Amino acid sequence: MEKENTLEFRTVYECNCWQNCDTWHPLASVIQLGKPLSECHAVRFGFYTVLLMEDCTDDGLECGRQYCDYTAATAVFLRPGEVFRMNGPLVLPAQGSVLAFHPDLLFHTALKRHMGDYHFFNYRKEESLHLSQREAEKLTACLGYVADELRQPVDMHTSTILSRYIELFLDYCVRYYERQFITRENGNQFLLEQTERMLNNCMASGELRDRQPLRATCVARELGLSEAYFSDLLKFETGMKWEEYLQMKKLEFAKTMLLQPENTPDVVARQLGYESVRHFCFIFKKMTGMPPDKYLYSAN
Hints:
Strand content: 5-15%
Largest sheet: 5 strands, antiparallel
Structural class: alpha+beta
């Protein structure tokens, strides 16, 4: 059923044909939207795609916009082969721009080596980037640089220059996502409180003792977030990766447990899912500067 209702753009050329655009380069394009998609339920691009959509709330393309977000434009980032679908009458809006670039364009470029650093290509559409007017104008200017280079004759420098302009565009998106984390501060704190409550419940109930270590994927799912977005939010708010954050919370809980006479280091280690009491004591001393038994003595 999905295949029947999903429009496939396997090549950049096919994407250009959809909007009646010239193909200046077979592996990259900047397309101005003007022809809406309404004859299908979803669209799949066979290459990296950034949809820079002008305000389109009326078309059901809010993409997770919150009350604290800007409304001038929205940027959605799609991996090659990812299906994009929205609620509402249109799959894509009639206004905005599309940056399309095939992974092969990046061959032997610096961007290829760290393309994975742009985590927002793994975000859900509900975690899109919402832009102010000034931010949207800056990204549009970057797309202009890409478009100008595409119109130059292809030579040995083309891929390098295009990749650098695309990298500049993506780096601005990193900056604006960090700004969005700032403007969503209250909502982010609520998510962190939910995360901490979830961890405390797991540790208190002994769930960590009987199963695999709690993973960021599971927590993100409970919060209704992608793992990539949750990990970036956690890093921005706490400065820690998930493994570091989990270790810190387990040690905080361990300190509380050790204040109760019935909780020996062996009991705490098993309760919190450490592989052995020896491993727990090693981690505890490394993080606090003293072994669990001396911590208990100093606390009393």
